[in-house]
Write a structure and sequence with these properties.
Blueprint lengths: L1 H18 L22 E2 L6 E2 L7 E5 H6 L5 H5 L5 E5 L5 E5 L17 E5 L2 E2 L14 E8 L3 H4 L6 E7 L8 E11 L4 E14 L2 E12 L4 E2 L3 E3 L6 E3 L9 E13 L5 E14 L3 E2 L7 E2 L6 E17 L2 E19 L1 H11 L18 E18 L6 E21 L15 E23 L4 E21 L27 E21 L2 E12 L15 E14 L4 E20 L5 E23 L2 E14 L35 E13 L2 E12 L8 H7 L5 E12 L2 E8 L7 E8 L4 E7 L4 E9 L1
Parallel strand pairs: 6-9, 13-19
Antiparallel strand pairs: 1-2, 3-8, 4-5, 6-7, 8-9, 10-11, 10-38, 11-12, 12-16, 14-15, 16-17, 17-20, 18-37, 20-21, 21-22, 22-23, 23-24, 24-25, 25-26, 26-27, 27-28, 28-29, 29-30, 30-31, 31-32, 32-33, 33-34, 34-35, 35-38, 36-37
Length: 779
């Protein structure tokens, strides 16, 4: 019994540590009169440089140094230290991000709802349908997470919050360079590496260029194992091929930034950045096959590449600061997916194999595969004026415009399928999607602050917007396969891609305004409290299934009380907020007949929560920090899941709702917390450090609807620990890291291979224990 008791005590101690701590918000020690204190953080959450403690917004920020200390290379690495952020992700580059419990789930399919959280690279949005760019994190100045509606300054895709990735800018007059190398090994998997480098070159006393490049190989840890499967109708038997470390990832990219200082008031900053990422296999395992194992039958891969060209012009017009930012982004994704689960379970449950035939009428192997091609483009422009920060009445005001497009091709193929049954021009295809979506946004915004007294400031904000969403093209079966849908429903010649004809061409437009009001009271130089009412929105759009009515915008109304404080001669920073949010007519994406995405306005929900952050420097060299959130998100009316045929609108009352009033919203755990302890000390002529980082999150559901919850099961609570130890001297550094040190399987996402069948759930979990050794130099 003694080992069991010791384990229980260890778990209790770890839980107490996690739940009593709050998130590391960049704590570090600095010498000030011989004493240590927390580091001052400068953020740009309100589109101007400010001390974190002066911003009446719930902001978490990681500096370059902190990102390096936390071993952050990508989205998954930093989001685990952001308690207000939750996500669903089936693979790299397909992460749907949520904040403060504003999540309905199921937003990852093509042409789903616009994101409720905006992601920005410097000043330009990089959010696309189905997931934001999975940017490699290196030479990044800050990652900022702004919780709560940021709609007045950041617009439609910042309904629940905003993530900002801010790059280090070129420096005039100073040459600098660095490189970092890492080799790692993953438990139950293979070996990986990371190669990174940066050089900053002054070209004159008015110009500098900064070059950054990276190459990363992430080892696989899921095995595709040998097995067989026999279709009950056709009698065809499939056999899988063994492939160890099935889910490998290769990422490489570069960034080039130029800074040109025209004079003391005006600068021009063009930037070009691109990344190429290739993945193989899948990132979820099948528990029926075994832990970290799958049994797939056809090749699977994904090639995601993108680039962004951006321009920032900053200057002064009299006493006002003028900023123009413009960007163009292009992203292409080619993918191949094994769809055997769908065809097998559909065949088993519905006998679909009985009509999968070749040209002679003979029953054939109904196994399906999907070849996908997606192309995204985005143009964005913003111009804004802001007043000096020492004015009693100050403001920021501007205009924004963007156009984002998405070409969608999904080709569901069956070998030897009768060409007469395929869409015209697509032999071997059973189902085809060739569609083109365009989202246009235009807005004017302003925030004005007035110092009523030296201690009390009030702020008002407004954003007037116009959104315009269109979707056209083809979806469905060939005329020989269906007499009602697909080609049979076409009304015009083809207008998109190589589709056989057009059976969808719709467009919706909307105008509106959202508002923000804030009151901030500064108790003294180190403490302030604030109260905020803010609104966020997400535009409506067109359903890909053209027979369904368009879905409407949804709105979020936020009521928040917060505080920013520093104590004990700036050795303790304690920030936090409590809030209540009402989510009206929220958009809910789900898979309808033929596993085709439909979107409805599901109903109403209320979210209550609290979040706290602590940074503490008890002595020189020792920093302790962390954060925690509590989120209670529930439906406040039934979700029926049916549509009134007369109006095309969702039914609001029903005898047997798919999710009754009081059902918790999916994805977001009730509790998410982390803590980091770092000790820096001299050791035999070296500067040494030891660090432990711990994360915890409670259980959560992957879907809103009760039946789907029963099929998926509940995502389990988990805790994980990372440990690092390193030394440095002169210009070099070396570090040993053990990430997920106890090799825990943290549930991150679940999905099923045949959604309309409710069969065979897959578990996407955190990366197994990874041991890495790193070496770097700076010049």
């Amino acid at each position: 019994m003694m080992p069991v008791n010791r384990n229980l005590r260890r778990k209790a101690a770890l839980s107490a540590l996690l739940l009593s701590s709050t998130m590391l918000a960049g704590a570090a020690y600095a010498q000030s009169g011989g004493s240590a204190e927390v580091e001052e953080l400068v953020v740009t959450a309100q589109k101007r440089e400010e001390n974190l403690q002066d911003v009446p917004v719930a902001v978490t920020a990681f500096t370059t140094k902190k990102l390096e200390q936390l071993n952050v290379n990508n989205f998954n690495d930093y989001v685990k230290f952001l308690p207000s952020v939750a996500f669903q992700s089936g693979a790299p580059g397909y992460s749907n991000v949520y904040m403060r419990g504003v999540a309905s789930g199921g937003d990852g399919n093509h042409s789903g709802s616009l994101p409720s959280v905006g992601t920005y690279l410097d000043e330009a949005p990089i959010t696309t349908i189905g997931g934001a760019l999975d940017l490699h994190i290196y030479d990044i100045a800050r990652v900022e997470a702004l919780a709560g509606p940021q709609g007045t300054l950041y617009g439609a895709s910042s309904q629940a919050g905003t993530l900002r990735i801010i790059t280090n800018q070129p420096e005039i007059g100073q040459y600098s360079a660095k490189y970092d190398l890492q080799a790692n090994t993953v438990a139950h998997g293979g070996h990986g590496h990371v190669l990174e480098g940066m050089v900053n070159v002054p070209m004159s006393d008015q110009m500098a260029i900064r070059l950054v490049a990276w190459d990363e190989h992430d080892a696989g840890y899921i095995d595709n194992v040998v097995g067989s499967r026999t279709y009950p109708v056709s009698g065809v038997t499939l056999t899988s091929t063994a492939k160890k470390d099935y889910n490998e990832v290769d990422t490489y990219g570069a960034r080039v930034a130029l800074l040109l200082r025209l004079n003391e008031n005006w600068t021009i900053k063009p930037t070009l950045m691109g990344q190429d990422q290739k993945t193989t296999g899948v990132f979820g395992y099948d528990p029926l096959i075994g832990e970290l194992k799958v049994q797939h039958y056809l090749p699977e891969d994904n090639h995601d590449r993108w680039y962004q060209a951006a321009l920032a012009v900053e200057g002064k017009v009299s006493d006002l600061d003028l900023v123009y930012t413009g960007a163009y982004m292009s992203r292409k994704i080619d993918s191949h997916t094994d769809y055997t689960d769908y065809s097998y379970f559909y065949d088993t449950l519905f006998g679909s194999g009985a009509y999968i035939t070749d040209s002679s009428g003979a029953i054939i192997d109904p196994t399906q595969r999907i070849s996908g091609h997606d192309k995204f483009t985005r143009y964005s422009h913003e111009i804004r004026l802001s007043s000096p920060q020492d004015w009693r009445t100050r403001f920021v005001a501007g205009a924004f415009a963007q156009r984002q497009s998405h070409f969608i091709e999904q080709n569901y193929q069956i070998t030897n399928f009768d060409p007469a049954l395929s869409p015209t021009g697509w032999p071997g295809t059973i189902w085809l999607t060739e569609q083109f979506r365009v989202d246009r946004d235009y807005a004017a915004f302003a925030e004005v602050s007035y110092d009523v007294t030296p201690k009390l400031t009030v702020t008002g904000g407004v954003r007037a917007f116009k959104s315009d969403n269109s979707l056209k093209g083809f979806f469905g079966f060939g005329a020989g396969f269906s007499s009602r849908t697909g080609e049979a429903a076409c009304f015009a010649p083809a207008t998109v891609g190589h589709g056989p004809c057009t059976n969808l061409d719709k467009r919706v437009k909307e105008t509106g305004q959202i508002f923000k009001v804030n009151a901030t009271y500064r108790i003294d130089d180190d403490k302030m409290v604030y109260a905020t009412y803010s609104e966020g929105f997400r535009p409506g759009g067109i359903n890909r299934r053209g027979t369904r009515a368009p879905y409407d915008s949804d709105y979020l109304y936020n009521y928040e009380l917060g505080w920013k404080t520093q104590w004990a001669d700036n050795t303790v920073r304690f920030n936090g907020a409590v809030y209540m949010e009402d989510w009206k007519d929220f958009q809910f994406s789900f898979l309808g007949p033929n596993a085709f995405t439909e979107i409805q306005n599901a109903g109403q929900a209320r979210i209550k929560g609290a979040e706290v952050e602590l940074s503490w420097v008890p002595m020189q060299g020792l920093t302790i920090g962390g954060a925690a959130t509590y989120t209670d998100a529930k439906l406040t009316e039934d979700y029926c899941g049916t549509v009134d045929p007369a109006t095309g609108k969702p039914v609001k009352t029903c005898a047997t709702p798919q999710a009754p009033t009081g059902t918790s919203l999916p994805v977001t755990p009730k509790v998410k917390a982390n803590t980091t302890v770092r000790y820096e000390f001299p050791w035999h002529g070296f500067d040494a450090h030891l660090q432990g980082a711990f994360v915890y999150q409670s259980s959560n559901w992957g879907d809103l609807r009760l039946a789907e919850r029963a099929a998926l099961g509940k995502l389990r609570a988990y805790a994980q620990a990372d440990f690092t130890a390193g030394i440095e001297r002169d210009n070099w550094r070396m570090e040993l890291s053990i990430l997920n040190a106890f090799d825990k399987r943290g549930d991150q996402y679940r999905y099923v291979g045949c959604p309309v069948c409710g069969a065979e759930p897959y578990f996407v979990v955190t990366r197994p224990r990874t041991i890495a050794i790193s070496f770097g130099q700076s010049f």
